[in-house]
Predict the structure.
Amino acid sequence: DTRHLALGTGLGRAYLVDFAVPCRNLAAGNRLGYRSRAAGLRPGDVLVSTDARGNRMECPIGGLYRLDPWR
């Protein structure tokens, strides 16, 4: 799926990122970074995916949704 990514914070929280446009550079092993206008991520910010060859793709965030753990 090129429109969604599940992100864990390492603090027991997880979020579903809904990209504004398809992000085709999300292969396993890619480095992920972000560019944000403020602390944390929000719609309108950008995830940056860089592959092993150094190819970068900027993926604008359309929405963020907190995922609840199974109970």
About this structure: The mean pLDDT is 89. Strands lie at 4-8, 14-19, 31-35, 46-50, 56-67.
